[in-house]
Amino acid sequence: MTILVLKTIGLMVLLGVGGFGGIVWLVPRLRLNILLTVALSLLLGIAVYTGLAQTLLFNESFEYVDKLVWLLAALGLASALVAAYKYRQRLAQPLRPRVSHVAVLALSLVVFAPIAIFSILYPLTAWDAKMIWMVKAKAIYVEPHLPNTLFDSALFDSAHKDYPLGLPTLVASHYRWYQGVSEQPVALTYVIFLWLIVLTVTGALLQFAGRTALGLAAALVIIFASGDFLYFAGLGLADIPLSAMFTVSLLGLWGALLSGDSGRSRLWLSLGGFFALASAMFKNEGAPFIILYALAAAVIFWFCRRSVKGGAPVFRVKWGRAAAWLLAYATVLLPLLLWHQRKAQLGYEVDLFLENVNRSVTEYLDRTIETVHWFIIELPSAQNWGWALLPAVLLAIAGAVVWIIRHRSGLMLVPLALLVGQLGVYVVIYIVSPHDLTWHVTTSIDRLLVQVVPALYLSTALLWLLLLSKKSVYSTD
Amino acid sequence: MTLSQQPEQTQRHLLAVIVVIIAGVHALLFGYWMVRTALPLTLSQAGIKPAQEIFDQHDPYQAVRSFLSQRKKSNQLAGLVLVGERVSPPSRFDLEVYYELYPVLPIKVARGSNELAGLVKNAQRHDAFISDSVLELDPTEFDLIAGQDAHIYIKR
């Protein structure tokens, strides 16, 4: 087991190096601090690797997935060396660790180390983890291609064959890395996803609000280590990786709003857009999120373009950079398109809407009221959210009202509006679902909320830090 | 006075109090989880406390898992019989065992009382049974490993 855990750490380090090769070019322009650099590098590395691994799977070349790890790491290292040579001081300055960064990083490691150890030792018990995600990982490991005869076995009857293959492919690539099937050490990767959410949220607070946010950042580390986050951390569900992608996308919107420069705004929006696309590799909820993100990004792009003076010309395109972004986007877009093509070929339909349900308007209205009722009941849950969700929601509403009264503008509320839109999609799915509503909601509501709550905490915290601070632009602290 | 007109200092203090209370509750929850669950599991893995008890507490299929993993390693799965009523959707028991065995499935699934009676009558033809209920097998021929929700019988 120890060797497999070390192999998992090695895999993550190599993917982190690969991702750093891309993020390093953004560090000087976006002045990313060390926490955000670590989080974004690893998430970028994992997302690109997952996308390319799926592309290999769909092209019957999955056996090259081990070599892909080394290739990404080598390219990342080469890219980092070139960037270091080119930027030198401009790179060293933002990455220089401050006391606040080191303190938050140390606290997160102290808190997450026992969670990681526990998750590795804890048996895999979550139903969805086994019967939706892990079983597909086994199938991909044993038969590394699609169509996969194992997908036609009885075990897959309740496995939602239409769900994206991002997580199963990532886990199957772990198995190839281990040279055998072992679920327990993979739990470390799931916990790392949650740890990266924490680094993203705390790193963003310190980036945009400076040392004044240190107390809040420390509190958030603790808040993320209890309730449903603690429970879901190592379970092997796709919701935490999806949540990580959503959180970084929201960071992209906030970065664009707070950067005070149209050139940097575009960079932030492009970065967030990449992770919005990547989210659809992990779960179907990523698809509506892409649309909502595109709308939010368009609004921010339009208004930031008009409000910022002296920024770079909006439509001046640097072809080298554009090509790099296109390449990055292609790594996650291509597997998405290939998967949709394969799904259509193999007849894997969305089973949530398979049954033809005839309901009256009154029934739909009843289901709507009941769904909203379930969401309201969930808010004060001590077991799932440790009484943090209700205050966060109330603070978000109060912050939005105060902001509109004070500034007569809703631009800073676009990230929160995106989250409301995403929750609206979940409500609609519950309403049209053919399943018994109580069963459907009670078995999934906390997992759906886990997807958006980190982004909600981030957005609420940033909104209030802005409200309470006179400084509302980019901080390099 | 509206909220927006209140002194910023007051708002800061109010928010700080909210954050401290919430973080305090979470620190207590985290501490409770550490002492109650994480630490005992870690100690059991280090051999300081018996592991089986803690694993069974969280995972009723642990006995099935360890049995199947041993069998898989030694390629002794050929004579295994899974006894469980397979319905739609499949029972938790069936799927748990299927998942553990998957994708190696050289198992026979017994459904219904007649089939089960036939299997028990000719039990000596099989190496092992995994069942979600107690089977009336000759204890001189089969050892019983009783899990919490599963019963494993292995030929002596």
Layout: helices, strands, pairs:
The complex is a heterodimer of chains A (477) and B (156).
Chain A: H1 2-23, H2 27-30, H3 34-58, H4 65-87, H5 89-95, H6 99-121, H7 127-142, H8 166-178, H9 183-209, H10 214-223, H11 227-233, H12 239-258, H13 262-282, H14 286-307, H15 319-346, H16 361-378, H17 382-385, H18 389-407, H19 414-432, H20 437-442, H21 445-467
Helix pairs in contact in A: 1-3, 1-4, 1-9, 3-4, 3-8, 3-9, 3-15, 6-9, 6-10, 7-8, 9-10, 9-12, 9-21, 12-13, 12-14, 12-21, 13-14, 13-15, 14-19, 16-19, 18-21, 19-21
Chain B: H1 8-45, H2 51-58, H3 62-73, E1 80-83, H4 92-101, E2 108-110, H5 113-121, E3 128-131, E4 142-146, E5 151-155
Parallel strand pairs in B: 1-2, 1-3
Antiparallel strand pairs in B: 3-5, 4-5
Helix pairs in contact in B: 1-2
Question: Can you describe what's shown?
Answer:
The complex is a heterodimer of chains A (477) and B (156). Chain A is mainly α. Chain A has one domain. In chain A, 75% of the residues lie in helices and 0% in strands. Chain A has 21 helices and no strands. Chain A is globular. The C terminus of chain A is likely disordered. Chain B has two domains: 55 residues; 96 residues, D-Maltodextrin-Binding Protein, domain 2 (3-Layer(aba) Sandwich), CATH 3.40.190. In chain B, a hairpin with a 4-residue loop joins strand 4 and strand 5. The radius of gyration of chain B is 26 Å and the shape is elongated. The N terminus of chain B is likely disordered. Chain B is α/β, with parallel strands linked by helices and 156 residues long. In chain B, 49% of the residues lie in helices and 13% in strands. Chain B has a five-stranded mixed beta sheet with strand order 2-1-3-5-4, with helices on both faces.
